[in-house]
Design a protein that fits this description.
4 strands; 20% strand; disordered C terminus
Amino acid sequence: MTQLLKPKVIQNYEKLSKELQEQIKFFYPDGFVDYLIEFTNAKGELVSALPFETDEKIYMVRMSVRKAQELVEDDSDFDEDGMLLASKREKYADKYSDVDYLFDDNSEDYDD
C-alpha cells in the first residue's frame, strides 16, 4: 500500500542526480536494454522507460533501446561487453550498501 503513496516520476537519465545514476548502474550492472518497459503516459503516448524504485519515489527513466545502448557504450563505468566494471561495482556496493532496493531483478515482472 505504501507504494501507492509514493510520487511517480518520469525523468530522462541525464537529468537524474549523479548519485541516482550510480545507483541505477549498480542495480542494473549488465546494462539497461533488457529491463526497459513500455507504458502509456498521461498524454496517451507510448513511452519506453527503465523502472527504478527508491524509498521515496518510483522512477520511470525515459529511454529508448537505442538510448539505453548508447548510455552504456559511452559510459566508462561499463566494459566493452556492456557490463559494469568490477571496480565500479565494488565502489558502488560500498557507497550504497545501506540502500534497500524495493524490487529485485524485475525483468519477468514486466513481461507481457
